[in-house]
Specification:
This protein is mainly beta and 875 residues long. 5% of the residues lie in helices and 51% in strands. Helix 1 runs antiparallel to helix 2 (248-274). The chain starts with a strand and ends with a strand.
């Protein structure tokens, strides 16, 4: 009997079916019956195509076993076995093991109660965090709002949940209240930044795949409707009390409009908070799109999107709200014609695609089942205004520019270096710094300025320039409809200069940001990375003045200098040296003896206080790893581990420049990194089985024996395999993933052959090879002769040729013949490859066993070579 199971290692997903094929081959010369069982698995997980089969000699049949573990099964590897047992003699059993691996699936659900809170400075929400996956989840809660105006506090802020567990967390959202105006609607996005099991208190990371625009997907959203300190109604009432005697009627009308507007804004905020719960419930069509700011193109969250039938705009058929990416989707719409409205607090109501009224809206026609995407709009806020003053020793003839913020610029200081007002006398040109000029205002001698009808909401740079002066930049974030006052910009003399070079321990250093600050004046530039690497120049600095110059670059400790410029001074030759603030270590992990790259190996670095963990790459640069952000100087222990490999630990030191010190160098550690080779944590046994003079020899030239059973036994642990019976591996066997230890290896090939036993010792990562020679299987030979002393009259004494000899197991005589043969001319007969046991020999002149009345009992031991057996007949 031969049993093959494919595959031996199976990756399964709970709730999904995974087929396993079992091929059984009858290698005997008689019809065999076989029973199939799955051991080590819950019977409810497994479905067998058939649990009992019958096979003719040399016939094979493939059965399918379907494994479907239940949902919620914890992640990990489970070993099960396929047992095939013969129902007919010799009633042997074969067990083939296979591993089922359930991949970890981290699924976390967040539920928030209540979904919307209206409050002043602080709001409290309850969050239910539930682990609905199959592996343990460690995580840290975090949240954000689109404007970054809200501070969050979680109690507790970290959770550790086993599969099926949940935790209740209180979230407090706190933000400065608007002093006046309508309520502010703040959309809150909540995240769970999951931590690796062995790095719970290290920097958090998230498993969530980033969205196409680089943002994470929030697990839940809530709405914080924040009331202002003084509402419009209160301000209007105050004005009414002052002018009640003169403008009673006018103020009353204005008050009514303002109170109505306040109520409308509040209603709109509540609509946005509940919009996601309102949707059409019939039909198979839908619409989708995005809402972005008209000014900057950034997505707008919390905009109410209402879908009306084209002939009735009194009541929407469906309403939703845009998410943090500005996207919206409305489904379950019936086929027909529709108009879509967009409203947000502080924004002008818009009808798709850009109409101010429903009469000018474009009708969207939907067919049954149609999903119309790409219905994008750009929303503009109520126009804002900015007013303020430019101060300095002489601000007359200066020019103020209102500019959009260029892409990629993050601070106002980073733009000053690009400002270069025209040197043409009497002409002031807008600065060429990448931003679009929205408005231009000349500055008079008093320095005051006012900008009306400013598109909002948006972020702008206010840039004031004047020939011979340092340009000044102030970044301003304008809300929808905001009236910003009291803005002050300083115009200072700008005829100074600071230049020099930046270097590190290894040479000139490009890409270093240098920022010079003196009072309210800030100038910034970046050291060159191409020609003249490391050099820099800070221009248009007001003089005389004292500047604080800061040089900074990721991965290096910042350097600060204090430099004083006299009137009109141009300071050159300034030298700055930066040292690394953090080190990095990298390397490659391979396996022995093949030197193959090893994916998925856990790499843990620790200096006793800080522990950092990563893993080798599984795709791309397989086996490679890298850890950055290590405090330097420092000494680290690096441990490499994987469940099937023996762990290995090395030690290294980093100097103040982040380089591996010479004392760490060796065969595995070089200045370029750490290269280690891991050996298996288990052992392997290989070998071959041969037998002369019989048996299932599949290669006559080498006497290789197939179908031999090889068993390793150590205490209660047992491992079994069958030698191959097909070329080119005829007679060979292999046992892998064996725990180190001492084993008794026994090789058997039926009861007619004496077993071969030997003791072997296995070391981790080692391979033991054994060639086993089995003794010749039992055989029996003899003659059929006549006659006894009571011979029949006329019988001639001597051997009997062409007589039929029948071999019976003693327990089956005379009903079942085990083997039969015919004597040769000398009356001789032979039976080969017989099992040990008690037999009855019978001989007769015909092929009918019933005529074989002359019998002889024979006992056969394993590997016996019985000769000279005589069967005496009387005729």
């Amino acid at each position: 009997m031969r049993v093959d199971v494919l595959p031996r290692q199976v990756s399964i997903t709970p709730g999904l079916r995974q087929p396993v094929t079992i091929t059984i081959t009858n290698t005997t010369t008689v019809i065999g019956g076989y029973a199939v069982r799955i051991l080590g698995a819950d019977p409810g997980w497994v479905e067998l195509e058939a649990d009992e089969i019958s096979l003719f000699p040399d016939e094979s049949r493939t059965l399918t076993a379907t494994v479907m573990p239940p949902r919620g099964l914890p992640a990990g590897t489970r070993r099960i076995a396929v047992q095939v047992r013969e129902l007919t003699p010799p009633e042997s059993s074969t067990i083939v093991e296979l591993d089922l691996t359930v991949a970890p699936s981290e699924v976390v659900q967040l539920r928030i109660d209540p979904l919307a809170v209206t409050a002043g400075k602080q709001a409290t929400f309850s969050i239910l965090v539930e682990n609905t996956g199959n592996t343990r989840v460690r995580g840290q809660l975090s949240a954000e709002d689109p404007e970054s105006k809200v501070a969050f506090r979680f109690e507790p802020d970290r959770v550790l949940l086993a599969p099926g567990e949940h935790a209740l967390v209180d979230m407090r959202a706190k933000s400065r209240r608007p002093f006046i105006g309508t309520p502010r609607v703040r959309i809150l996005s909540i995240f769970l930044d999951q931590n690796a099991d062995d790095a719970f208190f290290s920097e958090p990371y998230t498993d969530a795949a980033p969205s196409p625009d680089g943002e994470r997907d929030a697990l839940a959203n809530a709405t914080f409707v924040q009331r202002s300190v003084l509402g419009r109604g209160a301000l209007s009432l105050l004005g009414l009390l002052v002018a009640v005697t003169v403008f009673a009627i006018v103020i009353t009308i204005a008050l009514s409009r303002l109170v109505g507007q306040t109520a409308a804004d509040r209603d709109l905020a509540l609509q946005v908070a509940a919009a996601r719960n309102s949707a059409a419930t019939t039909g198979t069509s839908g619409v989708a799109g995005t809402v972005n700011l008209l000014t900057s193109g950034k997505p707008v969250a919390g905009v109410a999107v209402s879908v009306f039938t084209a002939d009735n705009i009194s009541s929407p058929v469906a309403t939703t709200a845009t998410n943090t990416s500005g996207a919206y989707r409305v489904g379950n719409l019936a086929a027909g014609k529709y108009k879509i409205s967009f409203r947000g607090a502080g924004f002008v109501q818009l009808w798709y695609p850009g109409a101010a009224s429903d009469a000018d809206a474009t009708i969207v026609t939907l067919d049954a089942g149609q999903q119309q995407a790409g219905l994008d709009v750009r929303l503009g806020g109520v126009p804002a205004s900015i007013a303020g003053k430019v101060v300095g020793d002489d601000v007359s003839a200066a020019t103020l520019f209102l500019e959009t913020v260029p892409t990629g610029t993050t601070t106002a200081a980073a733009r000053i270096a690009a400002l270069d007002p025209s040197t043409t006398p009497g002409v002031v040109a807008p600065p060429d710094n990448g931003g679009a000029v929205v408005k231009t205002v000349p500055i008079g001698s008093d320095g005051s300025f006012s900008l009306a009808s400013v598109p909002s909401p948006s972020i702008y740079d206010l840039v004031v320039t004047k020939t011979g002066y340092a340009s000044s930049v102030q970044r301003i974030d304008i809300g929808a409809g905001e009236n910003r006052t009291g803005v002050q910009l300083t115009l200072s003399k700008g005829d100074g200069l600071i230049s020099g070079s930046v270097a590190s321990a290894t040479g000139p250093l490009g890409g270093v940001t240098l920022t010079a600050t003196s009072g309210q004046t800030t100038a910034s530039t970046v050291s060159l990375t191409d020609t003249g690497i490391g050099t820099f120049t800070l221009r248009n600095l007001p003089t005389p003045a004292t500047f604080t110059v800061v040089a900074s670059k990721d991965g290096f400790a910042s350097q600060t200098l204090t430099l004083t410029l006299a009137a009109g001074q141009k300071l050159t030759g300034v030298g700055i040296t930066l040292s690394q603030s953090a080190g990095a270590v990298q390397g490659v992990v391979t396996t022995e003896p093949s030197n193959a790259r090893a994916p998925g190996v856990a790499v843990t670095l620790t200096d006793g206080l800080l522990t950092v963990q990563t893993a080798t790459e599984s795709t791309g640069d397989v086996g490679a790893w890298r850890v950055t952000g290590l405090p330097i100087p420092g000494t680290y222990t690096v441990t490499f581990s994987r469940s099937d490999l023996a762990p290995q630990t090395v030690s290294l030191s980093l100097d103040a420049a982040g380089n591996i010190t010479p004392g760490s160098l060796g065969a595995r550690i070089t200045s370029d990194g750490v290269s280690v080779s891991l050996q298996s944590s288990t052992a392997t046994v290989t070998g071959s089985v041969t037998q002369k003079g019989g048996g299932t020899v599949c290669d006559v030239s080498s006497n290789a024996l197939g179908e031999a059973t090889v068993t390793l036994q150590s205490g209660s642990s047992s491992y079994r395999v069958t030698s191959a019976s097909v070329a080119p591996n005829c007679g060979k066997f292999r046992l892998e993933h064996l725990p180190p230890g001492t084993y008794t290896m026994t090789v058997t090939a039926g009861s007619g052959t004496s077993p071969n036993s030997q003791v072997i010792t296995l070391q981790a990562g080692g391979t033991v090879n054994r060639s086993v020679v089995l003794s010749q299987p039992a055989s029996m030979s003899g003659t059929v002769e006549c006659c006894t002393t009571n011979q029949a009259v006329g019988a001639e004494p001597g051997p009997r040729a062409n007589w039929h000899v029948f071999l019976y197991l003693q327990s089956q005589y005379p009903t079942q013949v085990a083997q039969s043969t015919t004597t040769d001319q000398g009356g001789a007969f032979t039976f080969k490859d017989i099992d040990a046991g008690k037999y009855i020999l019978a001989a007769g002149p015909t092929a009918d066993p019933a005529n074989a009345t002359n019998t002889t009992p024979v006992t056969v031991q394993p590997s016996d070579q019985l000769t000279g057996v005589k069967i005496m007949v009387s005729q």
